[in-house]
Amino acid sequence: MTTVNPPAGSISFVVTVRLYSSNYVDRLLKTLESIKGPDDEVILLISEDHPEIATFRPDWLRVAKFPGASIFRLRGQIPAVCQREWVVLLEDHVMIEPSAIEAIRTLIREQPDLDIIPFVAKNLTSTGTWDWAIFLFTFALVWGPLDRPPPFAFVTSAIVRRTRLGTGAPLKDGEWELRTIPGLFQTGKHAFSNAIFIDHIKPKTLFEALVNIYYNSRSGAWLQLGLGETRRKIMREGWYNFMPRPGRLMRAVAARKHILPAGTRVRLHVLGFTHMIGYILGVLFGGSRAAYDLDTD
Q1: Which end of the chain is more exposed for a tag (fewer CB within 10 A), N or C?
Q2: Could you give the count of Cα atoms lying within 13 Å of 8 in the half-sphere of its Cβ?
Q3: Are 201 and 93 a contacting pair, CB within 8 Å?
Q4: Which CATH number fits domain 11-119+155-200: 3.30.70.270, 3.90.550.10, 3.30.980.10, 3.40.50.300?
Q5: What would the pLDDT profile of 51-110 be if each residue is shown by its tens digit?
């Protein structure tokens, strides 16, 4: 049951972990241990037990297990498990620095009526050619530092006021990603800071990048159908990701193009084509196992 009156400025730090070997969880949780405040809580949402996690159970950590859950179902549990005023959702493959947490607290304190704070993203660790491509495919529009407030981007990690998530019932699969965050970005009060950023750690080979994008898009199409989107709209979005979007992303990062690997735009089109194929198959044949295999490393 959700706390009726959580302490002002208190935070529920939530980390989602899926079935794969959690290579980053230990580092991330130790970071959270060093920066959490006395009124905060740290929650690990997992679908299965891991040896790395089973041996790392300090008294400040709460583990909520949902056997067999997809990453979308894990995120959907946030309204039901979080008890503080704010939710900071992280994935186990992102890193956050103590300075970013302090910047979050400062922004919340200075603007207490906010509803959502989007993360700026950086690629400080995974800098291979396909690492850059998959980073830009998701984060190009919020690649920090930014000189103006970011446009909306489909980034699952976010900072959200808990009361804007409803009564405490779990969200439907895909609702966090496709309804809640986009809706708050459009209708809620939001602010950003270049000091509030995550480092997205996703080292990928060509094959791994294509598999990741395919699982993501096929499950995304299936979730959109379940939330009432039309097949025609989803198909148009698939085409957009293949052709117009890579050019838009490259224009957005034109000032930093010189630090990107040669051939980045071609790689973005390859990812976009894979994304389109996943959308088509998701619309025609459903999600299959894509939502459950999405985070395989």
Answers
A1: N
A2: 9
A3: yes
A4: 3.90.550.10
A5: 667 677 788 999 999 998 999 999 999 999 999 999 999 998 899 999 999 999 999 999
